[in-house]
User: Fold these one by one.
Assistant:
Number 1:
Amino acid sequence: MNSCLASSSHIAAVFLFHCLVIFFLTISNISSSYGGNNETDYQALLKFKSMITNDPYRVLTSWNDSFHFCDWGGVSCGKHHKRVTRVELISKGLEGSLSPHVGNLTFLREFLLLNNSFEGVIPHKLGHLSRLRILNLSYNKFSGEIPTNLSRCSNLRSNKLVGSIPKEISFLSKLNTLRLDANCLTGGIPPFLGNITSMEVFSANTNPLGGNIPHTIGQLKLLRKIQCSECNLYGTIPHSIYNLSLLTHFALPVNRLTGSLPLAFGAMLPRLVFLQLRINQLTGVLPPSISNCSELVIFEMAFNSFSGKVSIDFANLRDIYEIGSHYLHTMASYLHT
Ligand SMILES: *[C@@H]1O[C@H](CO)[C@@H](O)[C@H](O)[C@H]1NC(C)=O
Ligand SMILES: *[C@@H]1O[C@H](CO)[C@@H](O)[C@H](O)[C@H]1NC(C)=O
Ligand SMILES: *[C@@H]1O[C@H](CO)[C@@H](O)[C@H](O)[C@H]1NC(C)=O
Ligand SMILES: *[C@@H]1O[C@H](CO)[C@@H](O)[C@H](O)[C@H]1NC(C)=O
Ligand SMILES: *[C@@H]1O[C@H](CO)[C@@H](O)[C@H](O)[C@H]1NC(C)=O
Ligand SMILES: *[C@@H]1O[C@H](CO)[C@@H](O)[C@H](O)[C@H]1NC(C)=O
Ligand SMILES: *[C@@H]1O[C@H](CO)[C@@H](O)[C@H](O)[C@H]1NC(C)=O
Ligand SMILES: *[C@@H]1O[C@H](CO)[C@@H](O)[C@H](O)[C@H]1NC(C)=O
Ligand SMILES: *[C@@H]1O[C@H](CO)[C@@H](O)[C@H](O)[C@H]1NC(C)=O
Ligand SMILES: *[C@@H]1O[C@H](CO)[C@@H](O)[C@H](O)[C@H]1NC(C)=O
């Protein structure tokens, strides 16, 4: 009887011990999966600062030991875990390069450095920041290639990036915004972009990309904006694009696109606000169905080889703000009635 009790309490003790072991193992698993600690963040921020060669507005002087790093200018932390979640240094005139140590800020969700003078490469380690949701490095002087593993939202406008759009970008199943405008990218609009079905905005204006628009673009059912002005694109506009009924911005001006627009254009893209195809080599008629794009605001179609009468009913397009009168005037002389 006693031995039974003894053994059952022994079993209970062993059981409790096992629970505790599992509990502590779980805790240690959790903390190790968090990757690093506040000391890592502190070191990473100091390294970031050490690579800044000019700070004209002295925004980084507050980055000193008189304050906890969570109170440094432009730095925000999580309330409880005190890890860096956001770095915002917009238009601060900062010069220098970007330390790869920022790849150690494992809790970083938003990283905004737009409009500074960062140069050199964008560290590949940024691609390891799995919590990063907003990355805006636009309007800097970054050069080299686009890192392979960018996160959900990548804003890399106006830098000096070269090479082609990396294939690894198509593994990012949650990327929704890719802005690459005003860089030196080549290699065309890659067909694998069609695999990023979360994409809502693709903008690559003013890059010497070249090539055709891949028909896989039609797989981006959530796409709202496609903007590729001055991208040296040629060939026809793939018909699959007219499946993207959520499109509000359809802007491919100043390229060498050929072929004609489908008659049902307006019925297929009813939400268009921006329609910009000026300066291409498009032929055929301007589809009258454009009259049904009732939200159209910007309409630029001049300098093409359209023929026939313009029978778009502009009276229907109440919100239209800019027809591009200069272009329309010129267009009139291009039309053969
Ligand atoms: C700890 O993590 C490892 C690997 O991720 C896993 O195999 C193990 O079961 C975890 N242990 C506990 C107690 O959660
Ligand atoms: C990190 O956290 C520990 C314990 O909470 C604290 O003692 C230490 O001062 C912190 N270090 C920094 C750099 O914030
Ligand atoms: C630390 O930052 C504060 C706030 O910007 C500044 O007043 C102070 O001079 C700095 N201390 C040092 C040692 O730079
Ligand atoms: C960019 O930053 C500079 C300060 O360095 C500022 O004068 C300028 O207005 C900013 N440009 C934009 C477009 O915000
Ligand atoms: C942080 O990043 C640097 C450079 O990428 C690396 O050498 C270092 O080991 C990382 N870890 C810590 C804890 O600083
Ligand atoms: C910076 O990027 C974010 C995310 O792409 C975007 O929401 C924001 O509008 C951008 N800011 C500027 C000034 O471009
Ligand atoms: C990209 O991310 C994946 C998954 O997080 C990782 O396995 C791979 O090593 C990363 N590649 C680079 C070049 O950072
Ligand atoms: C798109 O993804 C599928 C499945 O992962 C793959 O088989 C295909 O090669 C990818 N397409 C492109 C153009 O990379
Ligand atoms: C448009 O979408 C439909 C249904 O999703 C599909 O059957 C059709 O092949 C697509 N058309 C083009 C040109 O991609
Ligand atoms: C506009 O849409 C209506 C309804 O779908 C249709 O009857 C009409 O023919 C369309 N107008 C043009 C010019 O395509």
Number 2:
Amino acid sequence: METIFDTYQRYPFHFEKGEGSWLYDDKGEKYLDFTSGLAVTNLGHRHPVIVEKVKNQLDQLWHTSNLFSTSPQQELAQKLTEQSSMDRVFFCNSGAEANEAAIKIARKYGQHTTRSHRYEIITFEQSFHGRTIATLAATGQDKVKTGFRPLPQGFRYCPYNDIVALDEAINEHTCAIMLEMIQGEGGVNVAESSFIQHIKKRCEEHQILLIIDEIQTGIGRTGTLFAYEHWNLQPDIITTAKGLANGLPIGAMLATEKLAESFSPGSHGSTFGGNPIACTAANAVLDVIEQQQLITQAAIQGDKLLAKLTSALQHHDFVKTIRGKGLLIGIECKGKVHDVIQSMHDQKLLVIPAGPNVIRLLPNLLVTDKQIDTAVQTIQEALNIQNV
Ligand SMILES: *Cc1c(COP(=O)(O)O)cnc(C)c1O
């Protein structure tokens, strides 16, 4: 009898061990992992430095609650603020929680700091911001909302990369604009520069907060620590989670100093948030990224992967476009990708879709040239047997 809710359509694998770019199943078969557990194990499975640091922390301290401060949490806040344009950190345990914190702080700021009653947040079609009731409301995809209405009010949705629609949506109640620089779940859609510059201008003119959801794009994934760095942007709030602790649950909402007063004692909280074990893993992740220059590495390997995919597939009948940044790449096809993904899995390459027509590639930041070649060859072969 099934004992776990059927909330995921699971693939028929049962993995027992991971190492670097590889996953091993219960039959001893080895798979090349180009999913990284949904942009989470950005440094590969069981990275030795992280394993060692976490083992040591397990022998030191597990949990205190946020009524007390701990060194791993303080150290992580220090690192995150030093390495971004942000000044303050709120720790939680997942992406959705980080976005919840962003929504709450934006509303608080909007109501206390500006003259008018500002509470509305503009988000975008095809966005994904989480599965809690509020982040579901923020998400611009109808399919995830079905059956859960009524949802919280105060969100307005615009088509992505549409300047005119954005201008129409802004009004005296707008407190924030929230977006992903590259929509991960929504199809690996990259924000256009002109669109971002326009958002930047409108936010300044109307004192609107800019929230960037970096939950999938952050922690080196796109060839910068956070994706917004590609666009010459200064957000007010960013959210991060997935890759931050390489597989241990953590989330963080970062904001600039002007928002500091909006989160005061009692305004928000999380029992597990900033847990010493998860923070230790995150500190190790950021140390390894810096010491091994993995951001540059991700940019270089991402360029190679994109170039190789483009030369192998650009004239393929079934392929429409190949796009992305760094190691977040989408291959948009002219039809459903379910079957091609199936045949890649049969050939022991793990990839996932982003919407019905896009194959999404998320290798870890340490992916080798040889692994890139293997993946490109498998993808090409799988597409060749696909009937258009
Ligand atoms: C995965 C994701 C979330 C939700 O994160 P969870 O940890 O699953 O709650 C939010 N926003 C983006 C962009 C994501 O990719």
